[in-house]
Amino acid sequence: MSQTAKHSALDDAQGLIFGTLMCGLGLQFLTHAGLITGQTAGLALLISYASGQSFGLIFFLVNLPFYWLGYRRIGLAFTVKSLIAVSLLSLISALLPQYLGFAKLGPLLAALLFGFVTGAGLLALFRHGSSLGGIGIVALMIQDRSGFRAGWVQMLFDLALFALALIWLPWERVLWSLPGVVILNLVLAINHRRDRYIAL
């Protein structure tokens, strides 16, 4: 496979905007049905559900410790883009509910839509040298170093988080959440591959 051309600043800007909007929309599906997800977003959602505090603020704070790791291991550009993406998603998640609602949305459909839409958003972020911080940074580091795909790394983390969620959430909500996480991670595992696309 030949070397691909680098993205321009404009390319990256539209990629970050598209990716965060898709992830924000995915979160709308998820939170409307009272479901959860994995990664740092799932951790932030659990804390938000338990405390009643804003998801956006918690998500931003949960990601703070990971930026130094991202800077040391992957580089300044990746870390800055990830900080921008996390900040945008925090803002979008606070604003979007004011303009978008659902009269009817079943939990299974909510989970499936979340998985596909958020998977597309994360792919856009990854392919423009960014992530939504946290476990995404760790997963990309592992993929770059070992070839073990980022989607599988995140799936393992998600399984542990879902087990933890059973302590605070009804088992039915946790169960309905599973298809979304599986779809999301399959989208990443199948499509985010360096032998098919040079992401950074």
UniProtKB/TrEMBL annotation:
Stored Pfam families: YitT_membrane
InterPro entries referenced in this protein's UniProt entry, alphabetically: UPF0750_membrane, YitT
Keywords: Cell membrane, Membrane, Transmembrane, Transmembrane helix
Subcellular location: Cell membrane
Transmembrane residue ranges: 16-35, 41-62, 74-96, 108-126, 147-168, 174-191
Protein topology in the membrane: Multi-pass membrane protein
Protein name: YitT family protein
Native species: Pseudogemmobacter faecipullorum
